[in-house]
Structures are given as C-alpha cells and as structure tokens.
Amino acid sequence: MRKIAVAVMFALIAPTALAQDRVPMYGEQSPDKSETQKADDIRAERAYQRSLGNVPDQKAVDPWGTARGAEASKKPSAPPKPVVKHSSKAKSGNTPN
Questions:
Q1: I want to staple 28 with a disulfide (CB 3.0 to 4.6 A). Which of 24, 51, 52, 57 is the partner?
Q2: Is the pLDDT reported for residue 93 higher than 80?
C-alpha cells in the first residue's frame, strides 16, 4: 500500500518539476532580449525611479531617545577630549653594554 502511495505522490509531483524553465548552466550566455523585452525593462526602470520620488523624506530616528529622556536628547554632547600620549622610552630586554 505504501509503495502505491509513493508512486501516486511522484506522479503528482512530476508534471510540476518538468514544467520548470530551463536553468542556464555556469558560464552560459543568456539569449539576447527582444525589442519588446528591452522596452519593458526601460518602462519598469522609469516606473521604479518615479516611485522613489514619491517616498517622503524620513526624519532622524533615535531608538534610545525614550531611555535617555527628553532632556538628555536635547543637550549637545561635549566633544571628546584628546588623548594625551606620554612620551617615555620603550623598555626592552636588550640593554647596551
């Protein structure tokens, strides 16, 4: 009974697997596009660029603003202090005699 069920499942799956488009192999060149396909690509690109113009500008987002509170987000932060490097001779294991 199980063998029959498996055979039926394969019979149901086979048409969809065979209906798939041919996948190009590595290094294989794709066929040239027709004029209508090129025109469709150009129209799609123009529509995409127009849709980008419809997106409103977003204001800056501060995800930690509520954690810091309203007063902390309004205060400008102090610039970091420069790091002072102490000039000292490097100690090494070799000492001149």
A1: 24
A2: no
